[in-house]
Write a structure and sequence with these properties.
This protein has 396 residues and is of the alpha/beta class. It contains 19 helices and ten strands. The structure holds NADPH dihydro-nicotinamide-adenine-dinucleotide phosphate, the ligand CC[C@](O)(C(C)=O)C(=O)O and magnesium ion (2 copies). Its cofactor is Mg(2+).
Length: 396
């Protein structure tokens, strides 16, 4: 088994570093007029950590740096204007509201998002407004419109983002690909990024479980000198457990790449290819589905998630281990050129332009829904629906 730091070791390292961190945060505590941070370190442990990630030292910021009273105090004069109410708007908005922050939502009046916001308890005229009005009322403008809509609405939105406000994104897309999106923030506002590394639905469920999503944070423009601090506070506010520092560029390249690759497109393609070959060789739909998707998602992938690849291998037969070890490099070699092509397509803006064109259409919702319905009707996923009905938790 690969070695990893024990919790005991981690706790010892954290205790040893606590006084140094407490000192470095005492200045911050004074500026923010909050109770001295050193006292909270007596009861909670150090939130900021330098950890060794496979030989590279990186800094990770933890929620423990921002106990709720400190977070609320820090943002007490701010109104978070959350623009857009898709998956992230829902997750981040409800978490920030539950954290006691002042949050308002801005969406198109009477659109689908308006309806969903109403369902989640946002109140028209109090916490729910048309986009322009929400931006005017907010101090921290959280642009959570779809990436295509961020570009389309920029000309109307930009003049409302006045000096002293903070512009917040959850993706580096709009500002990094400015030649295509034309999103160039005003020079007199802080521009920050908090990008949860997971679906907005998970941002919400992990928060409700008392856990937190991993997020990337970055600063594009620091006018106040406090942009990073704000990003860290907001990351906690919207439900992050751990924040990893990056740049807008690195975030958008890795994110567009990952979702097209292993996270979504790659895994879909791999599942389908394996299933098809099983079917061509006379295996039944249930057998092909169980051996491809059900076992992966219900048994083996959670083992990787919990304890790593070696753990999953060791939980499988020696027969499986031998064969998988032999075939892994073959898959790696076959996939490497595909991933190289994908990264290039991301970095040169091809993926951005395709996304802007497609998701900028008036019919983007129906067009996406139509394609997803086609997938839903593929035999593999139809077979999956029946397999899932047999799960104990399934309710007829
Ligand atoms: N989905 C996720 O889990 C993640 C998303 N992100 C990033 O977060 C941001 C938000 O993404 P997500 O939550 O998925 O939202 P979506 O991409 O699903 O966008 C939905 C929102 O955009 C609005 N919208 C779309 N077109 C327009 C338009 N022309 N004018 C005004 N509003 C429009 C919709 O309003 P209406 O209902 O009125 O059409 C809705 O509120 C993006 O930058 C994304 O990359 C980052 C991490 C994960
Ligand atoms: C993997 C898709 C994602 O990047 C995400 C949930 O993190 C997205 O854009 O939705
Ligand atoms: Mg993404
Ligand atoms: Mg992502």
């Amino acid at each position: 088994m690969a070695s990893r730091p024990s919790h005991q070791l981690l706790r010892t390292a954290i205790r040893a570093a606590a006084p140094r961190v407490a000192r470095s945060y005492s200045g911050l505590a004074r500026k923010a007029t909050i109770s001295p941070i050193s006292s909270s370190f007596k009861t909670s442990y150090r939130g900021i950590k330098t950890l060794d990630f496979a030989g590279t030292k990186e800094t990770v910021y933890e929620r423990a740096d921002w106990p709720l009273p400190k977070l609320q105090e820090y943002l007490k004069n701010d109104t978070l204007a959350l623009i857009g109410y898709g998956s992230q708007g829902h997750g981040q908005g409800l978490n920030a509201r539950d954290n006691g922050l002042k949050v308002i939502v801005g969406v198109r009046k009477d659109g689908e998002s308006w309806r969903q916001a109403l369902e989640d308890g946002w109140v028209p005229g109090e916490t729910l407004f048309p986009i322009e009005e929400a931006i005017s009322r907010g101090t921290i403008i959280m642009n959570l419109l779809s990436d295509a809509a961020q570009s389309q609405t920029w000309a109307q939105i930009k003049p409302l983002i006045t000096k002293g406000k903070t512009l917040y994104f959850s993706h580096g897309f709009s500002v990094v690909f400015k030649d295509d999106t034309h999103v160039v923030p005003p020079p007199d506002v802080d521009v920050i990024l908090v990008a949860p590394k997971g679906s907005g639905r998970t941002v919400r469920t992990l928060f409700k479980e008392g856990r937190g999503i991993n997020s990337s944070i970055a600063v594009w423009q620091d006018v106040s000198g406090k942009a990073k601090e704000k990003a860290l506070a907001l990351a906690v506010g919207v439900g992050s457990g751990y924040s990893y520092e990056t740049t807008f560029e690195k975030e958008v390249y890795s994110d567009l790449y990952g979702e097209r690759g292993v996270l979504m497109g790659g895994i879909q393609g791999m599942f389908r290819a394996q299933y098809e070959v099983l079917r061509r060789n006379g295996h039944s739909p249930s057998e092909a589905f169980n051996e491809t998707v059900e076992e992966a998602t219900q048994s083996l992938f959670p083992l990787i998630g919990a304890n790593g690849m070696d753990y999953m291998y060791n939980a499988c037969s020696t027969t499986a281990r031998r064969g998988a070890l032999d075939w892994a490099p073959i898959f790696e070699k076959a996939n490497l050129p595909v991933f190289e092509a994908l990264y290039k397509s991301v970095k040169d803006g091809t993926e951005t332009r395709k996304s802007l064109e497609f998701n900028g259409r008036k019919t983007y919702r129906e067009d996406l829904a139509r394609e997803l319905e086609e997938i839903n009707n593929q035999e593999i996923w139809r077979a999956g629906r029946t397999v899932r009905t047999l799960r104990p938790e399934h309710k007829a």
